[in-house]
């Protein structure tokens, strides 16, 4: 059986799936045809019902729950790993709201956008951009502020950009729960037997990567060519953790609260 598997080129995703897609673990009767794409594109692919298994933003899961099932393994949750609201000029959140400044977001259906709304629900002037385009646009002053994700949190200060608010920190302070960022979901139509197999294989793939970092590193580095090895490792250490092996009680509580919040804000209508 061949299944389509879509995930991003970010180090945490390539680290997570390397053993599965490169034959380092036994995948029974399942083979995987992979697609790598930006998270905003992955979200759109999932909304269109295209991949069998796909990495998405948790905010997007609220839109596709009828067609896709959340897997217990492979998720990106954690502490101190949330998106950041940054700017080039010394703006405050009050400046952004009162002056209706332009804020770039990495997609309307991303968890980053939902966490921004949770922090500052009255921000209205949002502009969707691919996540890797936000910091260059800030430097060119084409936008006033931006929400950055992934490895950009490790490099924005080197570009002279300023932190306005750590959106994950705000979430953790209010909820006392880990930050749910990215989910792995599978089509319900695959059936429970296949879904459980995939879930177990992802868990084994994560465990293999954690135990054999040097083995999976070439695959990670292949898709992170502009990132230093230090940034790659920092990215992986932040986003691949115990929650990637299993959501657990706290992880599921965090996901449930995030989806409830999104519903209350009208994101899933």
Portion of residues in beta strands equals: 15-25%
- Overall residue-averaged pLDDT value: 94
Q: Say how many strands there are.
A: 11
The oligomeric status of these chains comes to: single chain
Number of helices: 12
Overall tally of structural domains: 2
| Form type | globular
**Structural class estimated from helices and strands:** alpha/beta
| Gap between N and C termini | 35 Å
Main beta sheet:
6 strands, mixed
CATH superfamily of the largest domain: Periplasmic binding protein-like II
Q: Say what the CATH topology of the largest domain is.
A: D-Maltodextrin-Binding Protein, domain 2
Q: What is the name of the CATH class of the largest domain?
A: Alpha Beta
Question: How would you portray this structure in words?
Answer:
- 45% of the residues lie in helices and 19% in strands.
- The protein is of the alpha/beta class and 269 residues long.
- The strands form two sheets. Strands 1, 2, 3, 4, 5 and 11 form a six-stranded mixed sheet that branches.
- Strand 1 (2-7), helix 1 (11-21) and strand 2 (31-36) form a beta-alpha-beta unit.
- Helix 1 (11-21) crosses helix 8 (192-211), helix 3 crosses helix 12 (248-264) and helix 5 (111-119) crosses helix 7.
- The longest helix has 20 residues, at 192-211.
- The model has no long low-confidence stretch (mean pLDDT 94).
